[in-house]
Amino acid sequence: MERIAPKTVGADLLDGVPRQRSVLPAPPPARPLAVPRVRPWLLLPTPAGTPFTFGYAALLAVTSLIAAQAPPSLVYALYQGSSTDVAHLVRSPAVVLLASALWIAGGLVSPYALAFVLVLTALERRIGGARAACVFLAGHVLATLATEVPVGLAVLAGQLPGTSLHRLDYGISFGVAASTGALAGLLRPWLRWPLLAGTAYLLLNDLLAYTDPMTNWGHLIALTIGVSTWPVIRRWAAAETP
Asked: Does the reported pTM lie above 0.90?
């Protein structure tokens, strides 16, 4: 009996005739889409994951409790001694710039307290603790100088009274605003632009209310400082990615 070899795929096609059909293997089954795991605990600082934010937040919690429990006269003296007004900046700039960042204006119930925890945690997880501290301090220091130096010049020019040299100024809000602007540069566009627009809207509303224009201008300046760091922090974030 004659054996017939099995017919190979495409053996019945004609040579030299283009665009002929051939039998193709069936495509592999589609893989199910991976659902990203939601880990809400990463929004909060931890000693191992975000040591800078965790340690700083603990320190702010202590100073906020002191401000809430201590006699008002003592609290005012502490605020006055930590104030980054022109008079203190001229005498001991480094001391007051650091001391003023130990307090939260409004205490633990302030919106800046929650923003500090969420924003600094997210920023530190992306660029590391030392770099997140640099961004925070850059906003705190530069925005303070940008608002207080004009006050000093205006007093010298006779445009403001001498009491303006002792204007009470303390808190973490400039650092938080700068960190928010910096963090936006590391987020996806669908998160970046709503975060920036919402933050700018709130800060502009405060400025238009005209209750504390110097501080409100400082917040907008600090936000701009954070945005200006995008080229640098994106390189830092790339370096942190394994």
From this structure: no
Cα Rg, the chain, nearest whole Å: 29
Question: Using one digit for the tens of pLDDT, what is the confidence trace for 30-41?
Answer: 665 554 555 666
With residues binned 3-state (H G I as helix, E B as strand, rest as coil), the percentages for the chain, rounded to 5, are: 65, 0, 35
Cβ atoms of 142 and 184 within 8 Å: the answer is no
Torsion of CA 54, 231, 191, 57, to 10 degrees: 10
Q: In terms of C-beta density within 10 A (0-12 exposed, 13-18 middle, 19 or more buried), how is residue 227 classed?
A: middle
Dihedral, CA of residue 217, residue 222, residue 223 and residue 225, to nearest 10: 130
Contact in structure between 180 and 119 (CB atoms under 8 Å): yes
Q: What is the pLDDT of residues 184-238, one digit of tens each?
A: 999 999 999 999 999 999 999 999 998 889 999 999 999 999 999 999 999 999 9
